[in-house]
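Our preliminary data section would be incomplete without showing what the modeling component actually yields. Below, a chain of 402 amino acids is followed by its predicted structure, encoded as tokens that our downstream tools consume directly.
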Amino acid sequence: MLLVSSLFTASAMQMDHGGQPPENPCADPGKPAALKCGLAPGATFDSNGRLWVAWAFAGHVYVNHSDDMGKSFSSPVVVNRIPEAISARGENRPKIAIDGDGRVFISWTMPLSKKYTGHVRFSRSLDSGEHFSDPVTVNDNLEITGHRFEAMGINQRGDIYLAWLDKRDRLKARREGKDYPGAALYYALSDDHGASFHANVKILDNTCECCRVVMDMDVDQLPVVMWRNIYDKNTRDHALVKFVDKNKAGSPVRVSYDYWKIDACPHHGPAISIPDDGVYHMVWFDNAPERHGLFYAHSRDQGQSFSEPVNFGNYESTASHPHVLSVGQKVYVAWREYDGKRSTIHLMRSSNGGLSWGEPELLVETDGESDYPFLLANGNAVYLYWQTQKEGFRLLTVDGAV
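Predicted structure:
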């Protein structure tokens, strides 16, 4: 399994003929912030079709936008005026969401003084991204422990949800001399456009502690959250929970039965997409001896049962970090592979709601370091964005508007 810890590190850069790494224009934090040098960007379209991107550089989160599908961008606007540590790699990156009135919401994780610790941070703009509020810490436990890997979602009513992996209960258990595998899944709700958040609520104990958490809204505008969970002593399969009320999560259900037993951090979370028909489309990675690689499955009854998982991607080429997007009956799955020299992005399509799939397509490639691929929709049009060391931020058309 290939794990890229960050972009643009000198050790991984291509060497020139003299045996020295070429000059890296992104290595100097004193230079002006630019999206090309931004780490781990998150992107979304607003209701007017404007592309927005949030990214980290030199202790700040920045936001800018594009009105020509990524060909050019506005000047970046700083979110946190006072610099701070920002998790911006792979599984843990800045998130961006925009409501129907143009308010812009940003979340990220701020690492603390000890390894594997952090706070969930949040800021908002009430003037369409011109200015941002001073960041606040959403986790109401402020001990130096893990509050990380947050997912953010906003529904049509404007409710903002944040869910994350939290180690406050593990810290408490260890003070009491008790064993506590993994972390816990917590969430917080804001129903006043991000002005404040309700008290944190725990959904369950003993989650895997280092894989991304993902979230999408069901047709009833309540969140569905998916994550890697710990079963038995150390079996790390996937689970999801659907909210049954505005501020109440239902009972978690197990999604995958791959039985990957590992006492380590996979750093390899799932993805979920829910279109207007309410079908849950999910992808994930597992590395169990008998069932390993990338998998897709769907649920047509709100997570009560799941289709037989479909295995895809080239395991021998370290197929990894899949993403999924569904637009009506069309479903798209993208992932990254690496052959030792090049990173390639592959795509698979279904036109019947995930019941059958076309052959995988090679979409794009690079010979430098690269981030993970992400799919996003603008109406019926589907795009993929990918940040690479060589080319910077790339927005690729997968399917044009119908």
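The first helix runs from residue 168 to 175. DSSP finds one helix and 28 strands in the chain. Preliminary results of this kind motivate Aim 1 of the renewal.
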